[in-house]
Amino acid sequence: MYCPNEIDRILISEEEIKQKVAEMGRVLTKEYEGKNPLFICVLKGSVVFFADLIREMHCPLEINFLKASSYGNSSVSSGNVKLDVGAGIDFKGRHVVIVEDILDTARTLYALKNELLTREPASLKLVTLLDKPSRRVVKGFTADYEGFDIDDLFVVGYGLDYDERFRNLPYVAVLKPEVYENT
Length: 183
Ligand code: IMP
Description:
Layout: E1 7-12, H1 14-32, E2 38-43, H2 47-54, E3 62-69, E4 82-84, E5 95-103, H3 107-117, E6 123-131, E7 145-149, E8 155-156, E9 172-175, H4 177-180
Parallel strand pairs: 2-3, 2-5, 5-6, 6-7
Antiparallel strand pairs: 1-9, 3-4, 8-9
This protein binds inosinic acid.
C-alpha cells in the first residue's frame, strides 16, 4: 500500500470508508428517490468522496461543482472563505445536496449555505464525510448527514490535502507534526 513518509498513522481505513459511504448512499437514496436531486461537489477536497457517494446513489440525480477555499497552504483555517458559486447553476426549486469533505470551523459551509439559500432551492441539505465538532466556530452548526466524527487533528487523504498533496491516498491519515508545524 502506498504510504508516504510524512504519514504518521492511518485514522480511517479504505475499507471503513467504503462501508460508511455505501451506508450513506443507502440513506440518501431513500431520501431523494423521485426528487431528481442536484448533488453539489465542493471542490477540491470532496471530489473523491463525491465520486464514490454518487455511485452509491441508486436513483436519478444531477451533479454540479462549486469551489470554496479557506485554508491556502496552511493547516490552520484563515477564517476567510472564498466562494465561487457557478453563475450558470440554477438552484431554484431544486432539492440541493451539498457534499463536503470535512466540517471544521464550519465557516465554509455556513457561508455556502447562506449563499445558496438566496437562490431559492426547494430544499437544501448538507453532507460531510468528516466532522471535527471540537473545532466549531459557527456555534451549533451541524451537517444533515455525516460519516465520521474525528478529534482535533489535521488529516489528509481521500481528497483532503496539505499544500495540495496527499489527495490521492485511499484512506484518511494523520500527518507527522513536523510536516506542518513550521507553517
Ligand atoms: P471550515 O470552513 O473550517 O469548516 O473548513 C472546511 C474546509 O477546510 C474543508 O473543506 C477543508 O478543505 C479544510 N480543512 C479543514 N480541516 C482539514 C483537515 O484536517 N485537513 C485538510 N483540510 C481541512
